[in-house]
Structures are given as structure tokens and as C-alpha cells.
Specification:
The protein is α+β, with helices and mostly antiparallel strands and 156 residues long. Helices cover 51% and strands 18% of the residues. The chain folds into three domains: 50 residues, no CATH class; 45 residues; 59 residues, no CATH class. The chain is built from five helices and five strands, in the order ααααβββββα. The chain is elongated, with a radius of gyration of 25 Å.
């Protein structure tokens, strides 16, 4: 007969093993869990240390701030953003993948196709009068989706 303590240990070991297998890591289980916990704690602590920017920044202020933080020249930072913009456009094109995740930001850019709509009757909310709403053709739109990392950093 298995006691509660032994069954809890068995469940914990299975969860650790499943985590290791899912992540593709084939190391000792407890060390991996400890490293993952440390890494998560570091990510949370660095997000907590960042100070909020009180006012909206201009493009040149953002570029200057990034160049100061990274130690790169302002021209290099501009080049990185231009390259990033080109990568996004290439993914959003008609035969592109339709999805692009910006590394280390928690932002995903996604292309979505909206279907065509037929013309229909509607009501003007101001006057209550019946109006005809025009048909719209099918169109492609770009969506920006916040990922879990970004959502968690906002709620700190």
C-alpha cells in the first residue's frame, strides 16, 4: 500500500519528467526544475526593476534611450528597427507565413482575412431611423497580439 507522501512524490516526479520531456531537456529532473524556477524569478525581478515612463516619447527619444541602454550607436539602432520592419512586412505579404513574433517583447503580429459582408438593414442609433448598411469586400487585416510575458509584466 502506498502512503499519501509516497503518492505525492510519485506525482511530482511524473510532472517533473513530463516537463523535461515536453521542453526537450534530457537532464536530471530536479536541477532542471530549480533552474527553470530561478530563470522565472529573474524575469519577474527584472520586470519589477524597470521604471515606468511617465510621458509619451517621440521616435528620436525612443531611439536615444535604446542606444544608451545597449551601448550601440543611434544609427545602428535605426538599422535594427528598419530590418525588423522589413522582416514583419515579408511575413505579412500574401505568400508569407502570416505570423511574426517579435523576440523578447511579448508581441505577435498576425495577418487575418476578414470575409466579405452583404448589404443589410440597420438602425441609426441617434435617430432610430432604418438605414441600408453597404456591403464590404473581403479584406486582410493585421492584428497585434500581446503574449503572456507582456500581460504579466503589465500586471506587476
Amino acid at each position: 500500500m502506498i502512503s499519501n507522501v509516497e503518492s505525492n512524490l510519485m506525482v511530482r516526479n511524473r510532472l517533473t519528467f513530463s516537463l523535461i520531456v515536453r521542453e526537450g531537456i534530457f537532464m536530471a529532473g530536479k536541477k532542471v526544475v530549480k533552474k527553470a524556477a530561478k530563470k522565472a524569478a529573474i524575469n519577474v525581478s527584472t520586470a519589477a526593476q524597470l521604471k515606468a515612463v511617465a510621458e509619451k516619447q517621440t521616435k528620436s527619444q525612443i531611439l536615444s534611450s535604446i542606444s544608451e541602454e545597449t551601448g550601440l550607436a543611434k544609427k545602428d539602432v535605426v538599422g535594427v528597427f528598419e530590418s525588423l520592419g522589413k522582416q514583419i512586412v515579408r511575413h505579412m505579404k500574401k505568400r508569407g507565413s502570416g505570423e511574426f513574433t517579435i523576440p523578447e517583447t511579448g508581441i505577435r503580429v498576425k495577418r487575418k482575412t476578414r470575409p466579405a459582408t452583404k448589404k443589410r438593414m440597420g438602425r441609426n442609433p441617434a435617430t432610430g431611423e432604418q438605414i441600408m448598411i453597404a456591403a464590404k469586400p473581403a479584406r486582410t487585416v493585421v492584428k497585434i497580439i500581446p503574449l503572456r510575458v507582456l500581460k504579466e509584466s503589465v500586471n506587476l
